[in-house]
Amino acid sequence: MLKISSITDCVIHSDQWFAGRLSKLTASEFFNFMGEKLKQTGAQSYIYRKVGETLTGIPSRKEISTAATEHGHEYEPENLRKFMEVMNVDFIVTQKLITEKESKFGCTPDGLIVISKSLDELQYQVQTVEAKCPGYEGFIKLAMCKTVQDVKKVSPIYFWQVLFQMDLCDALVGWLTIYQPFFKAGRHKIFKFNKMELAEDFKLLRQRKIDAVAYFDEVHDYLIGMPAYEGPKLNIKLD
After folding, report:
1. Would residue 87 count as lying in a domain?
2. For 216-227, what is each residue's pLDDT tens digit?
3. Phi then psi for 191, rounded to 5 degrees?
4. Residue 68 falls within a domain, yes or no?
5. 91: which DSSP letter?
6. Could you give the CA distance from residue 73 to residue 85 in angstroms, rounded to a whole number?
7. pTM of the entire structure?
8. Which of 1, 11, 17, 106 could form a disulfide with 99 if both were Cys (CB 3.0 to 4.6 A apart)?
9. Which one-letter DSSP state was computed for residue 102?
10. How far are the Cα atoms of 151, 154, 190 from residue 145, in angstroms, in the given order?
11. pLDDT tens, residue by residue, 19-68
């Protein structure tokens, strides 16, 4: 179950949210570790950026506003409302950072559906919801998918993002809702991710999380102990 203490007050895109994600390995970019080799170019670049954030306390990247990001920011709330109508659910949490201080991981699901609470009400059993509003081509490719494994082939970024969120939130079910507001028909589709049916994918994800932390520590520890110079000294004496 998800600890209530893991649900921070950091709302997406706020200053606190950016600060809370500092040095964390997050759902939106963890796909970099899911290729055939761990230390591929994308993973290496991501680790170097996150180690840099740890050593400086400064974000390695600032959010860049593009037509695609603005489109998503504008229509993702509408996507979530459509999802809630279709599924007849309410959210207890929307777009808040999920993490713990001692963890190197974090995620910001667009929604959490609360299924049950622990007796002490300190933990929730939840389902995660990720809302995406791709462009025409990206939407149609996903809309043509019939299974979650099809989604993995068409958009591994989305696939691993949902699994990462489910794993961090200890969710048995996750949802991916895609929406194209400008289509007059066929503009909304929902995919259900079932943990039991994705056991091998979760097994790989958890191993890569262990490997990613080890990679992070390797780079971080090297820099911490790195001498200024390792070669021979010139031993030049001035008269």
Report:
1. yes
2. 999 999 999 998
3. -115, 135
4. yes
5. -
6. 20
7. 0.91
8. 106
9. T
10. 6, 8, 11
11. 999 999 999 999 999 988 887 889 999 999 999 999 999 988 765 545 55
